[in-house]
Design a protein that fits this description.
alpha/beta, Heat Shock Protein 90
Length: 620
C-alpha cells in the first residue's frame, strides 16, 4: 500500500513539474514574440518594456536563451533610434551567448544582422566576412529562410565591390533557397535586386523582364503593397531611361499614392527624387523643385542620407543665388560628415570585434590555467613513482637551459633593437602631430585670410602646400594595434583603396594569431602594404593586387603581386618611399626582394625574422 501511494505521489509531482515547465516555456516564447512584433511595428516604448521583462525573467530563471534575447532586443532598440554602433555591440553579445549554448539558428541570424549593419555602414568586406560565417551555421541546419537573406546580402555586397558576376550567382542561390521556403516577399525582394543590378549596367530590357516577373505575382498590389511599389518604381525608371515615357508619370504617381497610404516615409524620399528628376529632364523646374523639397523633408525625417544628399545637390542646381549656395554648402557639410561617420562606424565595429574576441581569448586562458593547475597536481602525485627518471630529466633540463640561454641572449638583443625602433616611431609620431596640429593649422588660418583678401590664386597655392603638409603628416604618423587589431587595420586599409577597377585580394590574414607578433613587425607589414598599394595606383597602373601573408616558426613573410606595367630594376632608381621602406626592413634585419619586368607586373617579397637574422635586400 505504501509503495502504491509513493508511485501516485511521484506521478503527481512529475505531472506538476511538467505542467510548470510548459507554462514557463509558453510565457517565455510569448514574451519573445511580443518583443519581435513591437520592433516590426516600430513601437519603441513597448519594445523597451518587453526588454526589461525579459531581463527580469532571466535573473529569475538563469535561462541563457533569455540572456541572448535580452541583448538581441537591446540591439533592436538601438536600430529604431539609428544608433547602429550600439546595435552592432549588442548583436555581438547576443551572438556570443548563443554560441555558448550551441544555438546555431540564433548565431546565424545575429551574424546576418551584423552583416546588414556593416553593409549599411559601407564596411563591405566586413559584411562579406560576417555573411560567410553565418553560412557556416545556417547551411548545416538547412535554414532556407535565413540562407535566402544571407545570399541576398552577399549579392548586394558583391555589387558594391564591383563583382557583378558573383552578385548574380548569390542572387540565384537566394532564389533556390526561396523555392524551398516559398516566401513571396523574399522572392519579390530578390527579383527586384536582380532587376536593379541589370539597371545599373544599363541593361534595361533585362531589368524590365525581372521587374515584370515580380509584378506578375498573384494579387501583389493587395497582398504585398510595399514590394509592389518597389518593383513598379524601378520599372518606371527603366522605361524612362529607355525613352518609353508613355506610362512613366502614371506609374510614379501610383507608387507615390501607395507609399503615402502605407506612410512609408523612407521610400517616399526615393519616389520624390525620381519625380523631381523626371520633371527636371522635361525642364519643368517648378514641379522638380516641389518634389525635391518633399524628398528632402522625408529624407531628413528618416535619416535616409543617400536621398538627403541627392535632394540637396538637385536643389543647389535648380535654385539660384544665395539659396543655391546655401544648399551646396549643406551638401558639402553633410557629405563630409557622412564620410567621417562611416569611418567612425568601421573603426567602432572593428573595436567591438576586437573586444569580444579578447574576452573569448581571456576565457580560453583561464580554462588553460585551470588545466595547468590540475596537471601540476597530477605531476606531484606521479613524482613518487617516477623518481628514477629524475637524473635523466635533469640532464635534459641542463641541455635545454644551455639552448635557452643562447636563444634568450639573441632574443634580448633583438628586443633591444625593437625598442630603438619604437623610440624612432615615437619621434616620427611627434613630428607628424606637429605638422598636422601646428603647421597645417597655421597654413589653414593664412589660407582663410588670403581668401578674405580676394588673393585667390595665392590662396589656392597655399592650399596645395597645406595638403602636402597634411599628407606628409599622415605618411609619418604611425598606426596603433592596441585598440584596433592588426587584422582589422589591414581590412580597413584595403577597404579605403578598394575600387571596382582596382581590386585587392588578401590571403592568409585570418589564418594566424597576430597578437603574438611584435607591434614593430606588424607596423612594418602595414606600412609596406600601404606603400605598395600607393605605388600601384600612382605609378604601376595596376588593376589588381594580391597580398599573401604567412607566418612560419622563425619568420613572417609578406608577398605582394600586382599586374601593373612593371619596370626595369637594373635601370630604375628606388623612390623615397621605397628607400624608407628598405631602411625600416633593414632595422628589423629583414629581407626585401623585388622582381619586376616591363609589361609583366611586380612581385615584392618581404621576410622579417621573429628573433633577428642577417638581412639581404635585392632587386631582380
Amino acid at each position: 500500500m505504501k509503495i502504491f501511494i509513493f508511485f501516485i505521489l511521484l506521478s503527481i509531482s512529475s505531472f506538476l513539474f511538467s505542467q510548470e515547465n510548459k507554462d514557463y516555456l509558453h510565457r517565455r516564447d510569448t514574451l519573445i514574440e511580443i518583443g519581435r512584433q513591437a520592433f516590426f511595428d516600430k513601437k519603441l516604448p513597448l519594445l523597451k518594456t518587453i526588454t526589461t521583462q525579459v531581463d527580469s525573467l532571466y535573473k529569475e530563471t538563469k535561462d541563457s536563451i533569455l540572456l541572448a534575447k535580452y541583448y538581441h532586443f537591446k540591439a533592436l532598440e538601438n536600430k529604431l533610434t539609428y544608433t547602429n554602433d550600439s546595435a552592432f555591440y549588442y548583436y555581438h553579445l547576443s551572438k556570443d551567448i548563443s554560441k555558448k549554448i550551441h544555438d546555431s539558428l540564433a548565431v546565424g541570424r545575429r551574424l546576418l544582422s551584423l552583416a546588414n549593419l556593416q553593409r549599411q555602414a559601407k564596411d563591405f568586406l566586413g559584411s562579406e566576412i560576417s555573411s560567410i560565417e553565418a553560412l557556416q551555421y545556417l547551411e548545416p541546419i538547412n535554414s532556407n529562410l535565413y540562407l535566402e537573406s544571407v545570399y541576398n546580402n552577399l549579392g548586394l555586397v558583391s555589387e558594391e565591390l564591383g563583382q557583378n558576376t558573383d552578385a548574380l550567382n548569390y542572387y540565384f542561390k537566394a532564389i533556390e533557397s526561396n523555392k524551398l521556403n516559398k516566401n513571396d516577399i523574399g522572392y519579390l525582394y530578390i527579383t527586384n535586386n536582380i532587376g536593379l543590378l541589370y539597371q545599373k549596367q544599363n541593361q534595361h530590357k533585362k531589368a524590365i523582364t525581372y521587374f515584370n516577373k515580380g509584378l506578375s505575382k498573384d494579387s501583389i498590389k493587395e497582398k504585398h503593397p510595399t514590394q509592389y511599389a518597389f518593383l513598379l518604381e524601378n520599372l518606371a525608371a527603366s522605361n524612362d531611361l529607355l525613352g518609353k515615357k508613355e506610362n512613366v508619370l502614371q506609374q510614379y504617381n501610383e507608387v507615390l499614392n501607395t507609399r503615402e497610404k502605407l506612410k512609408s516615409n523612407n521610400e517616399l524620399s526615393i519616389t520624390h527624387i525620381n519625380l523631381a528628376d523626371y520633371y527636371k529632364n522635361l525642364d519643368q523646374n517648378q514641379k522638380a523643385l516641389y518634389h525635391n523639397y518633399e524628398a528632402l523633408k522625408y529624407a531628413q525625417q528618416t535619416q535616409n542620407n543617400k536621398r538627403w544628399l541627392e535632394a540637396l545637390k538637385n536643389l543647389s542646381e535648380l535654385t539660384k543665388g544665395e539659396e543655391s549656395k546655401q544648399y551646396l554648402e549643406e551638401y558639402i557639410t553633410l557629405n563630409d560628415s557622412l564620410f567621417q561617420n562611416e569611418r567612425r562606424l568601421k573603426n567602432q565595429f572593428a573595436k567591438i570585434r576586437y573586444e569580444t574576441d579578447k574576452k573569448e581569448k581571456e576565457n580560453v586562458v583561464l580554462k588553460t590555467e585551470n588545466q595547468q593547475k590540475q596537471a601540476e597536481i597530477l605531476y606531484h602525485k606521479q613524482q613518487k613513482t617516477i623518481g628514477w627518471l629524475a637524473a635523466a630529466v635533469g640532464l635534459l633540463l641542463f641541455g635545454f637551459s644551455v639552448m635557452f640561454y643562447f636563444q634568450r641572449r639573441r632574443k634580448l638583443l633583438y628586443q633591444a633593437q625593437l625598442q630603438q625602433i619604437q623610440v624612432r616611431e615615437h619621434e616620427r609620431q611627434q613630428i607628424a602631430k606637429s605638422l598636422h596640429d601646428e603647421v597645417a593649422g597655421d597654413l589653414r588660418l593664412l589660407h582663410h585670410k588670403l581668401e578674405k583678401s580676394n588673393l585667390l590664386e595665392e590662396a589656392q597655392k597655399l592650399d596645395a602646400v597645406k595638403e602636402n603638409v597634411r599628407n606628409l603628416s599622415h605618411q609619418l604618423s604611425s598606426v596603433s594595434f592596441d585598440k584596433v587589431p592588426f587584422k582589422d587595420q589591414i581590412i580597413n586599409l584595403v577597404s579605403d583603396y578598394f575600387e571596382p577597377d582596382f581590386k585587392i585580394k588578401v590571403n592568409g590574414l585570418q589564418n594566424y594569431d597576430w597578437t603574438t607578433i611584435n607591434n614593430s613587425i606588424k607596423r612594418l607589414l602595414y606600412l609596406s602594404i600601404r606603400e605598395s598599394i600607393q605605388n600601384c595606383k600612382k605609378h604601376a597602373k595596376a588593376s589588381k593586387i594580391t597580398i599573401n601573408f604567412s607566418v612560419r616558426k622563425k619568420y613572417v613573410h609578406l608577398g605582394i603581386i600586382d599586374n601593373g606595367i612593371g619596370f626595369n630594376t637594373t635601370v630604375n632608381k628606388k623612390g623615397i618611399g621605397l628607400q624608407n621602406l628598405q631602411e625600416r626592413i633593414e632595422e628589423l634585419n629583414g629581407k626585401l626582394t623585388i622582381n619586376s619586368e616591363v609589361g609583366k607586373g611586380t612581385q615584392t617579397s618581404i621576410q622579417i625574422p621573429l628573433n633577428g637574422w642577417t638581412n639581404k635586400n635585392t632587386f631582380s
